[in-house]
Amino acid sequence: MGLRWRNFCAVAAGVLLFFHGFCYSEKAPNYSFLQEARHAPPDLYYDYIIVGGGTAGCALAATLSQNATVLVLERGGSPYGNPKITNLDSFFANILDNSPSSPSQLFISEDGVFNTRARVLGGGTALNAGFYSRASSDYVRSAGWEERLVEESYEWVEKKVVFRPPMLQWQSAVRDGLLEAGVLPYNGFTYDHLYGTKVGGTIFDHQDHRHTAADLLEYAKPRNILVLLHATVEKIEFRLQGGSKPVAMGVIFKDKAGTRHSAYRKDSKSEIILSAGAIGSPQLLLLSGIGPEAHLKAHGIPIILDQPMVGQGMADNPMNALPIPSPRPVENSLVQVVGITTFGTFIEAASGSDIIRSWLRRPLEQSFNASEKAMKAVMTAAVRGGVILEKIDGPISTGHLNLRSTDPEDTPYVTFNYFKEPEDLRRCVDGMRTIIEVINSKSFSDFRFPDIPVQVLIDLMVNAPVNLRPRHVGAAISLEHFCIDTVMTIWHYHGGCHVGRVVEPDYRVIGVDGLRIVDGSTFNGSPGTNPQATVMMLGRYVGEKILGQR
Fold first, then answer.
1. Is 492 a known active-site residue?
2. What are the φ/ψ torsions at residue 349 (nearest 5 degrees)?
């Protein structure tokens, strides 16, 4: 009787613990652990301090909270309750919102290309076009990641925020046009990175509502995590001890009212982890005194570690596109299909009157020199229809990042050196030729005016101020000049804190203790066709690795 009773109690206790753990999680958007930074005490102490609640940071925080206390410092606000973020039709209205409280912060690279960086919980997943596709198996192997854990980490993400797109008329015509253009084979619906044409995942559900990395916080243990919104980290504080390595001890951050707070590591096992993105993480290292000595001295920043590779190797996948006015109505759609070519180019498409009007209005409104004639031409042509775009793999061309000022709110000077390497330009030309074949295909014929040749579409793009770059005289004739002159971003920039240069393979910052970086700044190349899947995966992956060593 006593043994059976003890066995019963053990089983009952296990069941209770299971349901307690199950019920203990919280559903978005009703997180009890979200709080404005102005309500935080002057000093906080946590096992892990994560700077940036973005694409990687949310996954990382949710994972670490399973067995440690976690503080997330996010400089932006919540994505929840903002229809511009939530609704697919508001995609460009969201990116074009340059108000002080906007989730999108505009910057213009030194290359003369309009760009934006996220300032919102969920990071780039609250702004992007939603396409979800994993990195290639070659990319995973070259990164030195454990393949089994990578697979499990992708699946962990996919269960929460990824959906199968509906594939209506426009996207189906693009898919069939890609196959007709020879981007073979057809791989159906898959998250995997495979040569040919495929339908990928999306973070927009069947009601066209966006799900962001912030939804991954549903996995978090509420009692172990605090997420502070509008918490802008100004610098990392270090302890210096003679000839030993500097030790990251804490961070100083300010709230929306400008009041400063401090957050410190709880003990020697604790860590500070930067997940502030490919611009924010190298910027914060520089502001904290880790970077090229001469650059730090020029800004009057005390030197913690002379590290010349911080901010180097910045890259952005260049994008070029053609707008295609349609004689028939089209659905509002973002990227659902991709053509993965063997020559290093990815072909994607979007459609819908609101989306396409915004696509071409964006640069027109941001350029003070846009002519009224050019604006009318673009707006008239894009009343309904879509765009087909190409972006190149990699890229090979890289640039650098330098501080603009010591204010963390100021986006640094960023140079990407688009098409500096001839191979990148060759890929773009091949990609544009493939787009032209898709437009001219029989499969796509219902969605283009037969009396508007492709050359007119090329002329339209050349004459539209899609960036601030000068135009070559023959840009409408030469695809090489077209690529260089009409280049845009698709917001896949990365680098600045590369593995092997700034961080170790386990993402610890080289030359200091108590500090890691986990985000796209560590990538040597953009993973797959679209990086968000792998950035979220990385947060989960590294979180599991850290817990396993704890």
1. yes
2. -155, 160
Q: Which residue has the tokens 């890289």?
A: 398
- Strand ranges in 64-151 using DSSP code E only, listed in sequence order: 70-73, 104-108, 114-118, 131-132
- Please give the DSSP secondary-structure letter assigned to residue 63: H
- Measured in degrees and rounded to the nearest 5, phi and psi for residue 234 equal -95, -40
8 A C-beta contact, residue 448 and residue 436:
no
State the pTM of this model: 0.92
What is the spatial distance between Cα 439 and Cα 453, in angstroms, rounded to a whole number? 10
For 464-516, give the DSSP string. S-SSS----TTTTT-HHHHHHHS-EE-S--B-SS-BTTTB-TT-BBTT-BSEE
pLDDT digits (tens, 9 = 90+) for 235-254: 999 999 877 899 999 999 99
Question: Which residues, listed in sequence order, are joined to residue 305 by a DSSP beta bridge?
Answer: 290
452: which 2 tokens? 């508007």
- Tell me: pLDDT of 338 over 80: yes
Structure tokens at 125: 């997943």
Q: How confident is the model at residue 49 (pLDDT cuts 50, 70, 90)?
A: very high
Residues 6+ apart with CB under 8 A from 317: 391, 392, 393, 394, 395, 489, 490, 492, 493, 526
Which residue of the set 230, 492, 494, 498 is catalytic? 492
Indicate the angle between helix axes 55-64 and 532-549, nearest 10 degrees. Answer: 30
Contact call for residues 333 and 352 (beta carbons, < 8 A): yes
CB 278 within 8 A of CB 496: yes
CA distances from 465 to 33, 71, 471 (A): 44, 43, 10
| Nearest residue to 123 via CA among 208, 227, 242 | 227
Amino acid type, 48: Y
> Chain-centre distance of CA 18, in angstroms?
35
d(CA 65, CA 47): 9
